[in-house]
Structures are given as C-alpha cells and as structure tokens.
Design brief:
Helix content is 55%, strand content 11%. By secondary structure, it is an alpha/beta fold. The protein has two domains: 4-127, Rossmann fold; 140-209, Orthogonal Bundle (Arc Repressor Mutant, subunit A), CATH 1.10.10.
Length: 222
C-alpha cells in the first residue's frame, strides 16, 4: 500500500499549498483542518506519516502526537510550524517526533524528514507484525512448554527447572525439545529474543505458565 502523507493544519491556504508541494514530489497526500477530522480518517491503519502544525485551536499538535502514540497505528509525526522555540522542539522530539521544522524550511529538508518518517513507519510496522506473530506462537504452547520457556528466559538450568517444577531432568529435556520444535527456534538466546520481540515480560510469561499443574515426580512425559 502506498504511504500517505497526512497534513494537519487549521490554515486552509497552507494546506492547499503543502498539498500541491508534496504531490509535485510524487507523494500521496491527505489534508485535514483539525486534529479531530484527522482522527476520523477512514483508514487509520494505512502506512505513512503526519505533518502537523503545533498551534491549532481546540486540539493542538501535542494532542495529536499523544493520540497517535496511544493508537494501534502510531504514525511518525513531523512538526511543521510557523512558531517554534527550542523548549517546544525539545518537548516534541522527546515525545517521539521525527523532526521539527518551520513552515519556511527548505523543500529538501522537508522531503528528507518525510522520507525518514516513512522509513521509520515501515520498520515499526514490520516490528509490530513480528510481535503479533511471536505472541501467536507463544500462545499456542502447552503449559509445560511455557514453563520451559520461562526457565530458559530466566536463565536457569535443566536441573533447577526439574526441582522447581517437580519433574525429572529427562522430562525437562523432553519438553524443551518439544518447545524448540514447535517454535522452530533452537538456541536459548533466540528463544529469549522471541519473547522480547513479542513484548512479553518475565512476569507475564510466569502468569501464562502458572496454569500448569505440576505432576508427580514419577511423570516422565507430562
């Protein structure tokens, strides 16, 4: 899908001028005279970035930035404002803005900022997809496999897992083998990275694994 550059500014003449300027450089552009109208756009999951004024009535650029950060599709923001100072620009950048430009910025600077923002959106979108896939894989694990994964992430040995879960080392090795085959990930460091990619903390993984009921020590497979 072609990225869209969303321009949000309460100055209609600036919107028209920016739309012509960006279309002239081959971008797909959508314009909005307010933050509320931008938030009501029909396809909020489409790729792209946002060019936003900072000072707007009712909801300003910081409101837009905060709303995006809390959304499922947090598009990168480039602020293009008529009035800006160092404290304001620092606040915007610390909150995750890709760039902070004045409305008189050179076209080359504007295009460079947009291209960086589009590239960032593509990377972050890919990372979110990988996180979803990683979570799906982990969600399909059995309780015992989740226990093995938790032990691996915690960095404890097979013997320590056997003692903690009340099973034999042989059973631990069996379930570790089943775990790696199911996930198609075989190195402990890569299993840890998979959990990190999924955005799952050790505490959350422990809660996921807590449903397992430890069998008797004589159990050799379950």
């Amino acid at each position: 899908m072609t990225p869209t550059i969303h321009v949000v500014d309460d100055d209609e003449s600036f919107l028209r001028s920016m739309e012509r300027r960006l279309r002239g450089h081959g971008y797909t552009v959508a314009t909005y005279p307010s933050v509320d109208l931008f938030c009501e756009r029909p396809d909020p999951d489409s790729p792209g970035c946002v060019l936003a004024d900072l000072q707007m009535p009712k909801r300003d650029g910081f409101d837009l930035q905060e709303t995006l950060a809390e959304s499922a599709n947090p598009l990168p923001v480039v602020f293009v404002t008529g009035k800006g100072d160092i404290p304001t620009s620092v606040r915007a950048m610390r909150a995750g803005a890709e760039d902070f430009l004045t409305k008189r910025a050179a076209t080359a600077d504007l295009v460079a900022a947009i291209d960086r923002a589009i590239g960032r959106d593509a990377r972050e979108r890919s990372e979110r997809m990988l996180a979803v896939e990683a979570r799906k894989k982990i969600a399909l694990l059995s309780d015992r496999e989740l226990q093995m994964l938790l032990g691996i992430v915690r960095g404890i040995t097979n013997r320590e897992m056997a003692e903690e879960y009340g099973i034999s080392e042989r059973t631990v090795k069996y379930h570790r083998t089943m775990l790696t085959r199911r996930l198609d990930v075989y190195a402990s460091v890569d299993l840890t990275r998979l959990v990190q990619r999924a955005g799952i903390s050790i505490e959350e993984l422990a809660r996921m694994a807590s449903a397992a009921t430890p069998p008797h020590r004589s159990d050799q497979s379950g």
